[in-house]
Predict the 3D structure of the following.
Amino acid sequence: MKTVYRMVVLFLLVCGLGWLDQGLAQAAFSGKVEGTKTGAAIIIGKNIWLEVGNTGLDTVKSNSGVRGQIWLKTRTDGEGNFSVTLPAGTYELIVWERGMTPQSDTINVPGAGYVAGLTRANPSFYHSSLSFAAEERKAAGAPPTPPPAVQLAIEGTVTGPKNGVTIIVGKNIWLEVGNTGEDKIRSNTGSRGVIVARVRTNQTGQFSIPVRAGTYEVIFWERGSTPQSETVTVPGPALNVGLTRANPSFYHANLALAVEGSPASGGNPPAANPEPEKRTEPPQSPTGKVTNLALRKAATQSSIYYGTGIDQSAACGVDGVIAPDKDPHNMFHTRLDSPAWWQVDLGQVSQLARIKLHNRQNCADRAKTIQVMLSTDGQRWETVYSHNGTVWDVLNLNVSGKTARFVKLQLREPNYFHLFEVEVWGTP
């Protein structure tokens, strides 16, 4: 009797589990994802959920107190369609694409006609990369797991920064340190340097930059700190970079780019950081070339908001970095003032052509009562523009024929005041 019992147990151990799992009816599940630009990742599992990170990195995790399992990962085709085969049952389905707001649903297999719609994320830097903290199912009878649909990334932490660190990823580039306080990113001699991505760390120094597999030069730069450069191979381990204050402290005051920003040479910039907008200069005046007179000039504001823990002083409004390339926290930002204002000194009385203002993407309504004032001496002011109270993104104001040394922006109601960038085009 014991011999028969042992044989039954052995049979179950060797064959039974596989037979039980394979006995689950295999069924089809298909659907379509609308709004996808490059093909969406489809993740199907049990006891899983999607944690949305505030640095751009999302993570598929197990439900609290249970072991989540990822049964299948695949992608939609060029028209957004997908079709998979799974044992009949109930699953969690996650639809994810870089730069888009992901979708999660509970599905029943078999099933057909599933439809999901994706829309652009706001802020746009959200959902730039995807990682997995739930295990992938390996039990008998489960379908083979396709190659992961997740993008590769350069990830890590920068320690020591005070205000957030600019990270430049590129190929054939190097950092030239200037002795006047201005550093420049240049192409290697005899090569065409290309900037693949340009982002900023979050408030805790973390970063995640989706890229294709390959080797890159990564430059870490912060105003007033000694920059660091790394040659990084992707895929590879996370980076841990430390920055220290520069000596003398006036070094590394500004950063300029002497190479083009392009996704060429194998680059794959994240949706959160598209190429900077093309700046169109107005025609040249008889007195000389029209330039951005406000760039890196002395600026002041009514107060400084310190709630984000990074630099949001007046200088951030004339640092030359324009949304959407700019980190959403890197802007000038006042406290709740009455009135709240920001001002730049052009250095001398100049002939103006136009003023271009770049609003913050969220909380944009706070600048709906903005007015623009000009002065030649900082004492007597002329209001040349008052906004009509609607929410705006970019204002391009014609101020041809006006002369000024000081440009002041002010709100007509008590509020916080913040803009990404202020450009004042004209001739000295």
